[in-house]
UniProtKB/TrEMBL annotation:
The lineage of its organism: Bacteria, Pseudomonadati, Pseudomonadota, Gammaproteobacteria, Alteromonadales. NCBIfam families: vanZ_1. Keywords: Membrane, Transmembrane, Transmembrane helix. The chain crosses the membrane at residues 7-24, 44-61, 68-86, 101-121. Coiled coil: none annotated. It comes from the Bacteria. Residues 18-121 form the VanZ-like domain. This is VanZ family protein.
Length: 126
């Protein structure tokens, strides 16, 4: 089961990287049109994409965690957050992109929410 979760997570990450590449190079995509057709679609998309990536990463990393100031953080959540932070901040330097703090907030809320969902799933499976 772990292999399947890891393969699905890596495939999903590859999809996200492909979408980022399309946005960075100013290409058009059916996904961009879909997002524009939904109210707050961009923010909902950020929340869901990076939240689901977090869930997959947490299980791909076998729920490993570390402690910071007596708070346990999943390694998968931290890796996704670092990826998101670097990707969002890089948009400042890419002419076809716009650095948007609201996007970063939606990403962070998705990561936090799906980290809590990870914790609930882990508790329920014991």
């Amino acid at each position: 089961m772990h292999k399947i979760i890891t393969i699905v997570s890596v495939t999903f990450l590859s999809f996200i990287i492909w979408v980022i590449y399309q946005a960075n190079t100013g290409q058009h995509s059916i996904f961009f049109e879909l997002v524009r057709s939904i109210p707050y679609g961009d923010k909902v998309g950020h929340f869901c994409l990076f939240g689901l990536l977090t869930l997959g990463a947490n299980f791909a990393f076998k729920l490993k965690s570390y402690s910071v100031l007596s708070c346990n953080l999943y390694i998968g959540s931290s890796v996704v957050f670092l990826f998101v932070l670097l990707e969002e901040l890089s948009q400042y330097f890419i002419p076809s992109r716009t650095l948007d703090i609201a996007d970063l907030l939606a990403d962070a809320l998705g990561i936090l929410t799906f980290s809590l969902i990870t914790k609930l799933i882990n508790k329920g499976s014991r």
